[in-house]
Specification:
Elements: H1 2-20, E1 27-37, E2 49-61, E3 68-84, E4 89-106, E5 113-123
């Protein structure tokens, strides 16, 4: 029951954003990057696993001046840990599918930008 209520709440929130959008266009976003990660509790210190982030998304303005926008993205993210010590040697490769929903603010002069949001992630490999 709680899971269905969450889905309905998220749907209503997204529908409200779409209805209140003043956008005449939807901007496409291509995302590519690198991240470093570690697994907490593995007795290894440091961010010693490199991974890739790739995905695509859409961005819609919430006001006429395009100061406020929201975006929905779909990402494939690699995370994990690596240890090459004599006593402990292992490699952990984790691949996640993530769907972040973000709200962005950018001032008119372009000197300040900030964003926040929620992300759903699922381990796929």
């Amino acid at each position: 029951m709680i899971i269905k209520l969450r889905k309905v709440t998220i749907f209503i929130f997204l529908l409200g954003l779409i209805i209140s959008s003043h956008a005449q266009k939807v901007k496409g976003v291509i995302i590519a990057g690198l991240n470093v990660s570690q697994i907490s509790g593995d007795e290894s210190v440091g961010f010693n696993r490199w991974g890739f982030n790739v995905g695509a998304g859409a961005m819609v303005s919430l006001d006429k001046r395009e100061k406020w926008t929201w975006s929905l993205e779909t990402l494939i993210t690699q995370k994990g840990a690596h240890e090459n010590d004599n006593l402990m040697k292992y490699d952990a490769y984790l691949t996640y599918a993530e769907i972040p929903i973000l709200i962005h603010f950018q001032d008119r002069k372009g000197k300040f930008a900030a964003g926040t949001g929620l992300s759903y992630g699922r381990l796929i490999k």
